[in-house]
């Protein structure tokens, strides 16, 4: 009788868990069976869902329920608080597993090359998201002194950042935000938040629901300049072919023609404004300079030479995420991804044996969480094809105990799926004490201790 197929997945966010689910649903799960170990750098699983989704989005966080059901399967083990490559290397993984899938996602901010972007008061959106989501590896405080703030970018992350900056701390208190985040937001002085997009309404990357949610807060007045509602032939064609684009455009049109209300915090959505410089004084942000753009007929824009200066005290760039380079794997600097063919890692034109990628490390940080499932299915299908064709490298120590003995010999203080249940209960208990569903534990050591309790 053949032993089960042993697969390691590095990264226990949605991409990694979807890959595990695809393996469990495959024919290989029946014969010879599959055995899957997920390695996660954080003490808790769920990746982007836990540390990249705004706390006032319980609908998206509900995806955790489905991911939870996958991790409950007996063929899966979780090794949390295990860092690649510090605690376990690629060579180590190949020693214990028939195949390795990397699904490490993207946590860093993509650079924006304009003068002044490094001034004090200029921030990456990813860093701010990590702060308000209670990521263990970011500072516990955040400077929120600016009364007028600029957010550069017109995607869902830009909306999240703008919305969190514009809401009151008390609006967010019913969510799972940690105490330090509530305390920081309670001191937030922002009264105006300006979101800037280089192109027009038809080119915005908002999802319709995320956009409409901006207007649900009793404290946020969303304002759109009627002069920013403009379409060319390319824009009209995009609206006709894409229902979501059309819904976004209609929402923006409705906001542009309504009277401005009296809600205390103003959130301006600006289009056709291309950031050209962050202005500073004594090393600190004091303004933003943009160039007015116009459509060129294709849906793209060109500069007009008309310059606008905006009085803002802080700038957040939300121009995309970037993955960390993974040691021992090939790397494409421009895209920030691992070179691959349908999930098979490619080095020097050849497939690296038994090595695969899925999620944002594979395709780049684009698309919604649901798109990750198709990525995982493609990668797993090719892994299984290689298994069927006997193209996988046979590991030297494929027994399930071997990796446990390895980690314990190195004194790696790893957490488990059972430990997640204990951490989950600890966070819920903290929330219950305050009449909330959950309060997230932030400190890594506290997370590990709760997992071990």
Gross morphology: globular
- In DSSP terms (H or I, runs of 4 or more residues), the helix count works out at 17
Query: In what order do the strands lie side by side in the largest sheet?
Result: 3-2-1-4-18-17-16
Can you give the mean pLDDT?
A: 96
Question: What class would the helix/strand composition place it in?
Answer: alpha/beta
Radius of gyration: 23 Å
Query: Number of DSSP strands?
Result: 18
- The proportion of residues forming helix, as a percent range, comes to 25-40%
- Catalogue the unreliable spans: none
| Top CATH class of the largest domain | Alpha Beta
How far apart the termini lie comes to 39 Å
How large a portion of the residues is in β-strands, by DSSP E? Answer: 15-25%
Count of discrete domains: 2
What's the main sheet like? 7 strands, mixed
At CATH level 3, the topology of the largest domain is FAD/NAD(P)-binding domain
CATH superfamily of the largest domain: FAD/NAD(P)-binding domain
